[in-house]
């Protein structure tokens, strides 16, 4: 069995996503969301395929990918923890929560633990402002964070 | 009749453990061999009582909350299926003071019905507005919306009817309705609640907007931080399509209208309408200069109505009960009701829909009950990250667009963040500049560069380096940002910064230097 070069593999899987979504009006963001869901990030090798199919330059695709906070250039850890750092959470001590969490996980914002277990990111509002401070772990929402909940989160991401 | 148990599926309730409560109820039903239906409703918005579980009894709904999974067994033991007493018993939900004091027009069904049941929706007054609209000429619908006095609930407060009129009167082969559901302001969650709790009201509002302006296609642009709202809206659109509420013949009329749900990608600035349009088109979310107005050249260069979720969700009640009914609520030029979101360090946090005109003090002290920590309220930020910080001395300001503007503030999307006396207003001012720097789209210089210089200058104040001179510099910088920025991100960041400086000057004085240890 021959190993396929990663680039070709990415290109063919990208082409399938592009094919499915390019009929939409303004298809680029849906395509990029689809690619990030498929690969866990937006690989460089996907960009020329998208550019070609949408008849725009690779620079334009690059410009869009890098504009939005959501699109990753590298895969995240197995868990993604987003901690709200906006005003409503600040008023309930999100600074202290962030400090404690960074210490528990041994990483800072925008970092992934060395064992690949978790990526920590700040987020500016999850719409849970009446149950602050809040976080989102792999898409699940958590409100009224306290020391006990932080310990639970740390245990869950390490397991 | 099979008993009905309501356990909210709203994100805020889920964040407080509603999923575990639902599982516990399911398990208890199975263990006891009781047949009952669990309905995942939205939230009524009293988050200090979430998860709030309700049961439908012969004497109406009875609420219990906040319910922990460990409470569930004892709830059954106390006969909660027939409204029996338990320590979490709250009685009839609409008699709970926080809810009883409200005027629910836009949020009338939110938390009450099964969000995906069109039958529930209709049984609670849904679709009447759209039914009226399909029998009217577009200009008459626009006239009603204009006469209702409805103004953009996203923050700008621009009259909704005027916007629609421009789109109606602009000729084009295609027009669009775009719903701005990029609710990025901290302290706001009204859009999220309505999408999760009563999605059909938004769909109905958008269909009415389409018929009124001749637009046949709608987009809802929802931020990616709201996965539950995205999932709910997608399901609701499917249901609406199957029921003929969307499609080539809306409710059997000759009007065509269909819509798509689109997801943002984590850029705060995309809540600005022109940036949102660029994002929908698949471009970088940079702001466009106006004119041309989106109403004339909007999405893909076509005439576009772009409205906030709450503006569109308020249209069905106006078309159902009439412009005069809606206009009857409110004060001055702020007509109707506004869903106020009370958030942050507050005892009774949640969504409070009321007619315009309540004072800030009534909202924070009487409704909100002061801080959650029990300490004195130091400041409240009204209108999200771009809104001003108000001290207690301005608590007599009535909730009204013009009254807030007169006090150098804004009501924005009507979110209020309460801070206790431990808040450091210099840090809050610094954060406003920092946030602007992180989220600036980069198109205009005052916002892109000004925000970074703002952070540096405030840092100098914190270090006690010629503070008076730096405050002068920040004031001048804020003036440039306010009048020189293309959109509200750079243009309104001065509100939190200058209000912090003007109302809380003590926090900007150099910290007393600790004496050096000999």
Automatic annotation (TrEMBL), chain A:
Key words of the record: 2Fe-2S, Iron, Iron-sulfur, Metal-binding
One Pfam family cited in the UniProt record for this chain: 2Fe-2S_thioredx
SUPFAM superfamilies: Thioredoxin-like (SSF52833)
Keyword Iron: yes
Cofactor note: Binds 1 [2Fe-2S] cluster.
Highest rank taxon of the organism: Bacteria
PROSITE patterns: COMPLEX1_24K
Residues reported to bind [2Fe-2S] cluster: 84, 89, 125, 129
Cofactor: [2Fe-2S] cluster
GO molecular function terms listed in the Swiss-Prot or TrEMBL record: 2 iron, 2 sulfur cluster binding; metal ion binding; oxidoreductase activity
Family as reported in the entry's similarity comment: Belongs to the complex I 24 kDa subunit family.
Protein's UniProt name: Formate dehydrogenase subunit gamma
Species of provenance: Mesorhizobium temperatum
TrEMBL record, chain B:
Cofactors named for this entry: [4Fe-4S] cluster; FMN
Record Gene3D superfamilies: 3.10.20.600, 6.10.250.1450, NADH-ubiquinone oxidoreductase 51kDa subunit (3.40.50.11540), NADH-ubiquinone oxidoreductase 51kDa subunit, iron-sulphur binding domain (1.20.1440.230)
Domain of life: Bacteria
CDD domains: TRX_Fd_FDH_beta (cd03063)
UniProt GO molecular function: 4 iron, 4 sulfur cluster binding; FMN binding; metal ion binding; NADH dehydrogenase (ubiquinone) activity
Family: Belongs to the complex I 51 kDa subunit family.
PANTHER family: NADH-QUINONE OXIDOREDUCTASE SUBUNIT F
Protein's job: NDH-1 shuttles electrons from NADH, via FMN and iron-sulfur (Fe-S) centers, to quinones in the respiratory chain. The immediate electron acceptor for the enzyme in this species is believed to be ubiquinone. Couples the redox reaction to proton translocation (for every two electrons transferred, four hydrogen ions are translocated across the cytoplasmic membrane), and thus conserves the redox energy in a proton gradient.
Protein name: Formate dehydrogenase
Native organism: Mesorhizobium temperatum
